[in-house]
Specification:
This protein has helices at residues 3-6, 65-72, 95-105, 121-133, 137-150, 166-178, 196-213, 224-229, and strands at residues 21-34, 37-50, 54-58, 80-85, 88-89, 106-109, 184-188, 216-220, 232-237, 240-246. The protein is an alpha/beta fold. It has a six-stranded mixed β-sheet with strand order 6-7-8-3-9-10, with helices on both faces. Strand 7, helix 7 and strand 8 form a beta-alpha-beta unit. Helix 6 (166-178) packs parallel to helix 7. The two termini are 28 Å apart.
Length: 251
């Protein structure tokens, strides 16, 4: 199927495909240059993502999945093309505006956790509320404790990252991404460090957030458990979007 057709295939009846577009990528290309060497990480990608949907980007390592998430999250800029997130052209934002936009709109779950080593688990989850929303102390505490409980690490809240297992760090990173009730959560291999039980717990927590707040979740993953939960599965190969399938997702 040609790339230009992918964004227009709107199979009816599946969750998350109600036509309300949150992310619109139009012929997005990303090229990295080092001296005379040029690497096209993304090539003419056109795709749309609806609000309150679960979308997985799959493909081999080096196919462009993480690059695309970084562009959507305003961590990088497209070389060409247009990328709108919640109506904002993120490619046109300067550094300060991009940071403000991320704080208002985006939650990140990084493959390497990116927890702050000098903060406890509780403080890591609380930090976005202090930085971005400046919520009152009582509200902050309620939200942080509720999410730590939801992902099964409330008993680890006073520990520092170097005292935690990889799976515990990952679940804390998930709670941190959700604490500001962002419009979209970008998750790079969110279950890579989790066993079957904890992966299911994290995915169910995300679904509850989607159902309650209309949060959109965009995953870059190799994990079949995440792919099975997705309502839309997009495949990237060599920087190109080669398929987009509406599956309905697992319950």
């Amino acid at each position: 199927m040609p790339t230009s057709d992918l964004s227009s295939s709107r199979e009816g009846g599946a969750p998350g495909t109600n036509g309300t577009r949150l992310i619109v990528a139009e012929r997005v290309t990303k090229t990295y240059a080092s001296g005379t060497i040029r690497v096209e990480a993304l090539k003419d990608v056109t795709v749309t993502i609806d609000r309150a949907s679960f979308v997985s980007f799959i493909g081999p390592s080096g196919s462009g999945k993480t690059t695309l998430l970084n562009l959507v999250g305003a961590l990088d800029r497209p070389t060409s093309g247009r990328l709108l997130v919640s109506g904002t052209d993120v490619g046109g934002l300067d550094r300060r505006a991009a940071a403000a936009f991320r704080g208002r709109t985006i939650g990140f779950i990084f493959q390497e956790f990116n927890l702050m080593p000098v903060l406890t688990a509780y403080e890591n989850v609380e930090y976005p509320l202090l930085l971005v929303q400046r919520a009152p102390p009582t509200e902050r505490r309620e939200r942080v404790l509720a999410l730590l409980e939801a992902v099964g690490v409330a008993d680890q809240r006073e520990k520092y990252p170097d005292q935690l297992s990889g799976g515990q760090k990952q679940r804390i990173a998930v709670a941190r991404a959700l604490v500001t009730n962002p419009q979209v959560v970008l998750a790079d291999e969110p279950t890579a460090n989790l066993d079957q039980q904890n992966a299911a717990l994290v995915m169910s927590t995300m679904r509850r957030m989607r159902d309650r707040f209309g949060t959109t979740f965009v995953f870059s993953t190799h994990d079949p458990r995440v792919v099975a939960s997705a309502e839309v599965v997009c495949r990237l190969e060599d920087g190109r979007l080669v398929s987009r399938d509406v599956t309905g997702g697992a319950a």
